[in-house]
Write a structure and sequence with these properties.
The chain is of the alpha/beta class. It has 11 helices and 13 strands.
Length: 302
């Protein structure tokens, strides 16, 4: 009997020691190199994910910048859409309906330098900013005066032409209107939203807004307006002997101003155009183009 009890105690002690051994091994395995490697792997994976997230965010920023680039937008669609009005000698149509003029020809050359074509769209001048923001046009290139209103609403190029606003009257009455004071009783026709309208307001003239400067000339020729205020470059090309308005002439100059090209606010095309102007002035092509249309004296050095 005593032998049986001793044997049983021996067996129980062996089982207990085996169990203790298993527990010790489990603790050692928990601290083993293989488990440490697993922890390191998890940490590295989390670190890699963070790097990938940062890279993705950077790529997204680059993609957003590309999407915001007007130059990329224009190159992608293959055309530079130019907002204009019928304004000789800057933008007007030849006998075949093609748009020509100093501005039109320079716009074509700039578009070519970008690897795209220039498409011309006639716009309501008073809505030029809305046309830009709505992306129906990419720029306004039409003898546009660089007023505070324009430069605050658009990304503008440097000035490329000098200009002035001048008064147009019938030639047989020109002697009567040689200063600002003599103009106070006249009824003017001016292009809506133009520098001419700004001068009419500044001088407290009575005026009727029309859609284009050419329409203002028609009003004076028809006798429905006493006078018009238009750009001096247009006046030199369109009124007087040898023009379609031989019975009209220009008298009083109201100001001095400069032309620039307008793009959407923040557009990278404005800087590209400044570089193009500098290069074309340096190689003589800008002056040569201006000579074609008789505006070389107005060109601003770049």
């Amino acid at each position: 009997m005593k032998k049986l009890i001793a044997l049983s105690l021996t067996m129980m002690l062996s089982v207990s020691l085996a169990a203790c051994g298993s527990a010790d091994n489990s603790d050692k395995q928990a601290d083993s190199p293989s488990n440490s490697a697993t922890d390191d792997s998890t940490t590295n994976t989390a670190s890699d994910d963070a790097v990938n997230d940062n890279t993705s965010a950077s790529d997204a920023d680059d993609s957003s910048s590309a999407a915001d680039s007007d130059m990329a937008y224009v190159k992608d669609k293959g055309s530079l859409v130019v907002g204009i009005t019928n304004f000789e000698p800057m933008d007007y149509q030849d006998a075949d309906g093609n748009w020509i003029g100093f501005d039109a020809d320079m716009a074509k050359a700039f578009a070519e330098s970008l690897g795209v074509t220039a498409d011309f769209v006639e716009i309501d001048w008073d809505n030029k900013v809305f046309e830009l923001e709505g992306k129906t046009i990419d720029c306004v290139w039409n003898g546009m005066t660089l007023t505070d209103e324009v430069t605050s609403a658009m990304e503008c190029s440097k000035a490329y032409c000098n200009n002035a606003q001048v008064v147009i009257v019938s030639e047989d009455q020109a002697d009567l209107y040689q200063d600002v004071e003599s103009l106070k009783e006249l009824n003017f026709a001016v292009e809506a939203g133009s520098a001419g309208e700004a001068q009419a307001k500044a001088n407290n003239f009575s005026y009727t807004p029309v859609q284009q400067q050419s329409a203002a000339l028609m009003e004076v020729a028809a006798g429905t307006a006493d006078a018009a205020i238009i750009d001096s470059l247009m006046a030199a090309a369109m009124v007087g002997d040898g023009t379609g308005y031989a019975d009209l002439t220009y008298t009083v100059g109201l100001n001095n101003e400069e032309y620039g090209v307008g793009f959407r606010k923040g557009s990278d095309l404005a800087a590209a155009l400044n570089d193009f102007f500098a290069a074309s002035y340096a190689d003589g092509s800008m002056t040569q183009c201006a000579e074609t249309y008789g505006v070389q004296a107005a060109v601003v050095e770049q």
